[in-house]
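Hello Y.,

Per our agreement to keep a running log of every chain we model this quarter, I'm adding this entry. I've kept the format consistent with earlier entries: sequence first, then predicted structure.
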Amino acid sequence: MTGSTGFRKGRGEGPFSYLITGFVLLLLVLCGLFYYKWGGAIRTVAGVRATGGWSGTADGLTAGSVLQASLFYFRRIWVALAFGLLIGATVRAFVSPRHVVALLGRGGAMRRQVAGGLTGTPLMLCSCCITPVFQSVYERGAGLGSALAVMLASPGLNPAALTLTFLLFPVSLGVARVAAALAAVFVLPPILERLSGATRVMPPPVGTAGEHGVPGSPREFIERLAGALGHVSLRTIPLVIIGVLLSSVILPLSVRLSIGGTLLVVALVAALAVVLALPTFFEIPLGLLFLSVGAPGAAAAMLIAGPIVNLPSLLILARETRPKVAFALALGVWLLAVLAGLSVSTRV
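Predicted structure for the entry above:
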């Protein structure tokens, strides 16, 4: 006998049980991500504390051909990107739009931004790897501002990256990075949402398939997850590849422009950093390189704009919303990076 809730009474089976399985799957994927990212981050921070310096370089991104740099990038991020795709697919397949709205779409602008920031920060994914998560939560009902907070907080407020900045750079650079990241996550997105007029994707009415169409068998469960994974991958991976290839052309130019602390140099480095695709922590060796040649402003610009957005994430944002939204976000991050770079140029 089947009850009105959609599962077999007395046996704990049916559609509802598969929906619970979807939430368990999401929890397992998140636990795996936390183990991978937080474990690596803790080891990295401990290593820097023990040695007092940074032993890695960014030569894999700055030396060699465009294809070599791009392959190096994907070898560094593929595990995190796989986690991002799995999280995005699981959210799309098994999380009700109403639950997404309840978490990221209700309350005032500040409440939504804080919820988005707190959701994205622990993930510690780079700009490319967080895009599948952004795509899914935005499509499932999150407002543009809160969805952007998730996307920007993951790389921008990465706790390990901020800790490394204070360990390896002058305090003024660390303070500038934190201040700019907070502004990018909590101030810039609601401004963009208001100025762009982008509307929130609202959940379907109660009783529609989008709200209650839960899988009723193992086959439907697998098909739904596979379909969601294919959808998220097709919406993100091609633009990530295109953006990374173009970024590999731009990165060597940013290194050559790093000498000096003038407004022009800081502005140029910040503009290039906005579109660069960097794996997690790779802004650190680039920032150290800029600092070693006497360009603290360029170092600050790279530390701020380098990780928080890049060309792949901007391309995906433009496709999911409007090109002007992506341009406005790039402009806002660039402006924050320039202001921070100029502020530290006079102190270091």
